[in-house]
Amino acid sequence: MSMFSMSGKTVLIVGGAGYLGLPVCEGLRAQGASLYIADHHSGRLADAKAVLEAQNGEGSVQTLPIDMGDEASILACIDQCPPLHGLVMATAGSSNTHFDQLTSEDYDRSNRINLTGTFVLARAAAKAMPDGGAMVFYSSMYGTVAPDPANYPGDMPPNPVDYGAGKAGISQMARYMAGHFGRRGIRVNAIAPGPFPPQAVRDAHPDFITNLTRDTMMGRMGKRHETAGAVVFLLSDASSYITGQVLGVDGGWTAW
Ligand SMILES: NC(=O)c1ccc[n+]([C@@H]2O[C@H](COP(=O)([O-])OP(=O)(O)OC[C@H]3O[C@@H](n4cnc5c(N)ncnc54)[C@H](O)[C@@H]3O)[C@@H](O)[C@H]2O)c1
Ligand SMILES: O=C(O)[C@H](O)[C@@H](O)[C@H](O)[C@H](O)CO
């Protein structure tokens, strides 16, 4: 197990209070990492801190505000971090809007969070990695394939183009930045999760879940903790010669 150890390594998890982000924090902490969690939702941040401190003791995690749509806020967040070994970007902007109703303002807002935000964050975080390190960006299967509109019942909007275009950009940014930072000992990879609907979505849209389930090879949705192993792997020495890759965590969705 020692090659997966994160002992003595500090990781900033942006979006670490989220549905997929919190289990990543738990997984990294279990491997001995020191955690800085940043999010724009102060209530979620406080809840995540409480969960992690209940498991690991008071003061075991630091929290910071960040708005991925605001460059000054991103830079201020990095300024408050000690030297880093790892960065996780687990936020997303999405219009959640039907194609015909999508405005250019909605589109720009998503791009600002997903594309500009990830670029600004990663460039600043690299400066905080004097001894090298690793970054993992959350992309999506919808950065590689498009959603099938037939999967979306009623007036539920299909996963929108601003989101998918941003995720494709995030995957490509991982490759570009891996090239740029490779000789400085900083690895950059992305993971591309498939369907990980929270319980509220499962309860509200059973037909949608039936449709998505059919499109996975494994015949089930992803469980909340099932992206954490990929992230721990890509931040740890277990992946020391892996960079510029996008790892699907999608139950086989994109392999059909
Ligand atoms: N859940 C899925 O099915 C799924 C599938 C594929 C990819 N993803 C990706 O995984 C990542 C995590 O998704 P999730 O399901 O945990 O979503 P989530 O909404 O539960 O978590 C995202 C977190 O980011 C925070 N956040 C959102 N916008 C922000 C901003 N502008 N600045 C700072 N923080 C912000 C939110 O407060 C939240 O805590 C996202 O990048 C998402 O696109 C999710
Ligand atoms: O790429 C993504 O973000 C995911 O595939 C989601 O859009 C799922 O469809 C959703 O988790 C179901 O609720």
TrEMBL record:
Signal peptide interval: none
Residue ranges of domain Ketoreductase in the record: 9-194
Key words, A-Z: Oxidoreductase
Gene3D superfamilies found in the cross-reference section: NAD(P)-binding Rossmann-like Domain
UniProt-listed InterPro entries: KR_dom (IPR057326), NAD(P)-bd_dom_sf (IPR036291), SDR_fam (IPR002347)
Name of this protein: Gluconate 5-dehydrogenase
Protein family according to the UniProt entry: Belongs to the short-chain dehydrogenases/reductases (SDR) family.
Biological source species: Flavimaricola marinus
